[in-house]
Amino acid sequence: MTGPIVHLAGVSKRYGDVPALRSADLLIERGEMLAIVGPSGSGKSTMLNIMGTLDRPTSGTLRIDGYDVGALGDRELSALRARTIGFVFQQFHLARGVPAIDIVADGLLYSGKPRAHRRQAAERALRRVGLGHRMLHLQHQLSGGEQQRVAIARAVLGDPPLLMADEPTGNLDSGSGTIVMELLRELHEGGTTVVVITHDRDIAASLPREVRLKDGRVEHDTAAPRVGEVGRIESTARSVPPATKEAS
Predict the structure, then answer these.
(1) Does 231 reside within a domain?
(2) What is the number of structural domains in the chain?
(3) Exposed, middle or buried, 237 (CB in 10 Å: 0-12/13-18/19+)?
(4) In 66-114, which ranges are continuous DSSP H helix?
């Protein structure tokens, strides 16, 4: 696959009379690692929801992995999201009373794969994030940093090319936060496109690219866009994904 994995052109979002995102242009190449940073109310969460296909823009054009999101039905959009995007949130969202291996395996619950296959995939994902020795531990037996690594293992279970991390260190102490950021960098080095949504300017400054939002606008982008690319959508991009996979 060639071309950017995320392309926003003139994307706006309004909630009633309130503009949350204003004519945003953003192009993210495959294999990039970047931070989207800004204070509360800057539009970070709105941009995350739109790029993650959890919400649709009011106007403008969005392409994810070459697909025109506006042209997709709900089923097609769910399939695109399931195979393309992994999410890591500030709140870990781990089930209580369930071993880590099954928490991760449940990420494939609707894939049609047998339980043994799902658990094998979960074991590989947990080893990938350094938790091979904690697979049978319950949520309350894991530290905050370990819980976030379980959440990351669940997010990368199907090897999505795009990983979106929303304030991934927000509930962690500095030591655990450092470990989680190192893990995200390792995933990036392995070829995953990693987008970190954060209000932490230090984290943003430590990443290869920083996109700053203010009042719903892209105020600054440390990556100079290539002439003619941001704000323009190629007419050759695909419109409908040839997928039947259900969202997991």
Answers:
(1) no
(2) 1
(3) middle
(4) 74-84, 100-105
